[in-house]
Amino acid sequence: MIKIPEAFQERMKSMLKDEFTDFIQSYETTAYQGLRVNSLKIDVPTFLSLSPFSLKPIPWCPTGFYYSKEDRPGKHPYHAAGLYYIQEPSAMSVVEVLEPQPGESILDLCAAPGGKSTQIASKMKGQGFLVSNEFNQARSKALSENIERCGIPHALVTNETPERLAQRFPVFFDRILVDAPCSGEGMFRKLEEACEDWTNDKVALCSRMQREILSYAASMLKPGGTLVYSTCTFSAEENEIQIAQFLSEYPEFKLETIQLKQEFSAGRPEWANDVQEVTKTARLWPHLLKGEGHFIAKLSKLSTEDELPKSIGKNRRPPVDKQALLLFENFRKEFTTLPPYPEQQMLLFGEQLYLTPKDMPSIDKLKVLRPGIHLGTVKKGRFEPSHALALALSKEHSRHSVSLASDQPEVYRYLKGECLLNEGAAKGWTLVCVDQFPLGWGKVSNGQLKNHYPKGLRG
Fold this sequence. Notes:
Layout: H1 6-16, H2 20-25, E1 33-37, H3 44-50, E2 56-57, E3 64-67, H4 77-80, E4 84-86, H5 93-98, E5 105-108, H6 115-124, E6 129-133, H7 137-149, E7 155-158, H8 162-168, E8 173-179, H9 192-197, H10 200-220, E9 221-231, H11 240-249, E10 253-256, E11 265-266, E12 282-284, E13 294-301, H12 322-335, E14 346-349, E15 352-355, E16 368-371, E17 373-379, E18 382-385, H13 387-392, E19 401-404, H14 409-415, E20 420-421, E21 428-434, E22 437-445, E23 448-451
Parallel strand pairs: 5-6, 5-8, 6-7, 8-9, 19-21
Antiparallel strand pairs: 1-3, 1-4, 2-3, 7-16, 9-13, 10-13, 11-12, 12-13, 14-15, 15-17, 17-18, 20-23, 21-22, 22-23
Helix pairs in contact: 8-10
């Protein structure tokens, strides 16, 4: 049984009144589990035809599904192939409200571990420019790994403060998501540590932090752009009051009405000094739906004469070493069916070669973890393709591939780092797939497939 803080219970009883009994009883049930199909790699009907799991649709996300505790999708090879992202069901609602479009410039300002960024990317369909940022360095590494696993080709992953991003990207983005750091009250049923960490002081601290983050987000949004603010907490200080105060300080913003799903509830003006506008926001309550607690506000930015979209310059990247380009070109022609990549989008960090997003501006002096697709390593006169490149390809992109069945032991041997027999196969780099979906690289020599699955992912 979860030990709910007494002070939290008292506050929620005061807020919810007659609803409180149903609310507190929701903590006696287990948290719901969800996965979201990665439509960059597979469409929903195809995934459902292949899926070994017991899935039920999540009403507010067309690519989201509940799964049962027995399914354990995190252990399945399809997870390693990036066919889906394991995500809390209520969290899937936020990007549906953001409504990303292909070709836009979008910022996910507080992005780790990557659920919402990968969902944004799937809706962008590989077109446009996505910045996925996380201030916490340890969490930013998990974000970068999830961007890689999902095969996202047009994302810049940064480890920066909102202030430094605001200096680099003034009035730049079409859409911004602020999934703000919060007191985590909505996750009590799912994460015991959120419950243990909670205090009223933490609520106040988070509220101050959110206000500052929103101010920087406001300065990075184009006129006519969309800003979505979300939390996984219940406190009005972090939700309705936060939005009411933002509107009073930034008159160029207005709240857009969120079309409520049957399971959602409207924000409560009585918790925000009777500011009626907050009824346009959305609340997700664990006693009213199959998911955890969430709050969502959707804002649009009006045009002002003194604030027009600014040009911040193209990325002045140094020309890539000709030998490095030649080594990659030789690999591309010999082992893939990929078309030539534009040289102006190539970037060499030390020995690491990247293909950057087409519309990426200058990233000088930013803390960058991933400036696009990591193509591979150039060293000692050879090119070695990266795991990220494998996951960004389809089977048809590789001249040599081997497809392992998801229900056969060989695929698990590969994921553990073991070499496999591959008699008669062509020598060299081979794309290893599970049911036709790329998992990573192997290299054939003397009838054996040498394993190149990353050591840090094996298990």
